[in-house]
């Protein structure tokens, strides 16, 4: 077997509205409605499906838990600009900028938390 790429991932969240607002208003993703009342966030060719804790869709993770994810997102915007934009939204940078190893390249990254406490790394490929 050879896996080619990731189609989507799922975040279990405490509050759909709060999560959608953060990822769309702060990170510029697009809210997507699909299926029977399901919600997702789209960016580039990617999608994050959202499950609200206690109302998850089946099949689901064995122990769906808000705040248990660690995501790395790559931006084309300069990281200094990203940090300024986060500050305008009142979002604290927890760490960075720091150099990290990514899947395709060395990354220059900052780390922050979403409303559920998920760790979100925002990076520039170097």
Can you walk me through this structure?
The protein is built from 2 helices and 8 strands. With 126 residues, it is of the alpha/beta class. The strands form 2 sheets. The protein has a 4-stranded mixed beta sheet with strand order 1-4-3-2, covered by helices on one side. Strands 5-8-7-6 form a 4-stranded mixed beta sheet, with helices on one face. The longest helix has 11 residues, at 16-26. The chain is globular. The model has no long low-confidence stretch (mean pLDDT 96). Residues 5-125 form the VOC domain. This is VOC family protein. InterPro entries: Glyas_Bleomycin-R_OHBP_Dase, Glyas_Fos-R_dOase_dom, GlyoxalaseI/FosfomycinResist, VOC_core.
Topology (elements, then pairings):
Elements: E1 9-13, H1 16-26, E2 30-34, E3 38-43, E4 46-52, E5 70-74, H2 79-88, E6 95-101, E7 106-113, E8 119-125
Parallel strand pairs: 1-4, 5-8
Antiparallel strand pairs: 2-3, 3-4, 6-7, 7-8
Organism: Pseudonocardia nematodicida
Protein name: VOC family protein
Domain VOC: 5-125
């Amino acid at each position: 077997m050879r896996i080619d790429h990731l189609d989507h991932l799922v975040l279990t969240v405490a509050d759909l509205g709060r999560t959608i607002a953060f990822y769309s208003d702060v990170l510029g993703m697009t809210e997507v409605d699909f299926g029977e009342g399901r919600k997702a966030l789209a960016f580039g060719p990617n999608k994050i499906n959202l499950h609200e804790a206690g109302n998850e869709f089946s099949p689901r993770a064995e122990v769906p838990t808000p705040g248990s994810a660690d995501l790395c997102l790559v931006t084309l915007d300069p990281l200094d600009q990203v940090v300024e934009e986060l500050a305008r939204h009142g979002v604290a940078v927890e760490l960075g900028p720091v150099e990290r190893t990514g899947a395709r390249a060395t990354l220059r990254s900052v780390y922050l938390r979403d409303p559920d406490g998920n760790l979100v790394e925002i990076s520039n490929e170097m």
